[in-house]
């Protein structure tokens, strides 16, 4: 029969936030150790690709980090991947070019 576990906190149910692991202390006692939940890896808002250079942490731990550890030094750093930003820049450039071409064609038609 499995050994019973006495939780070290008030929550007495086997929930996702109350997971434990059995450890042996330096004093040679066997105890249950509460395990923290794992953080999700931040992903790009456009493509869903994992963002590089940003740690996977729980929201409270993430809030304690300094700004340089939370972002990447780039436009939309920490929100969008490098490829997504590149695509946005190219798209904006092509739209502007298209506007200029339309304007030129309109001028040619008037002449």
Automatic annotation (TrEMBL):
The keyword Ribosomal protein applies. Belongs to the eukaryotic ribosomal protein eL34 family. PANTHER family: 60S RIBOSOMAL PROTEIN L34. GO terms for biological process: translation. The keyword Ribosomal protein applies. Keywords: Ribonucleoprotein, Ribosomal protein. This is 60S ribosomal protein L34. It comes from Schizosaccharomyces japonicus (strain yFS275 / FY16936) (Fission yeast). The lineage of its organism: Eukaryota, Fungi, Dikarya, Ascomycota, Taphrinomycotina. Pfam families: Ribosomal_L34e (PF01199). GO terms for molecular function: structural constituent of ribosome.
């Amino acid at each position: 029969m499995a050994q019973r576990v006495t939780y070290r906190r008030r929550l007495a149910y086997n929930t996702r936030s109350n997971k434990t692991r059995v450890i042996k202390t330096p004093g040679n006692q066997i105890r249950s150790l509460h395990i923290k939940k794992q953080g999700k890896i931040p992903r790009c808002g456009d493509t869903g690709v994992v963002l590089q250079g940003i740690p996977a942490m729980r929201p409270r731990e993430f809030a304690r980090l300094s700004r340089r550890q939370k972002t990447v030094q780039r436009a939309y750093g920490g929100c969008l991947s490098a490829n997504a930003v590149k695509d946005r820049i190219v798209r904006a450039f092509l739209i502007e070019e298209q506007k200029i071409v339309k304007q030129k064609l309109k001028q040619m038609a008037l002449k």
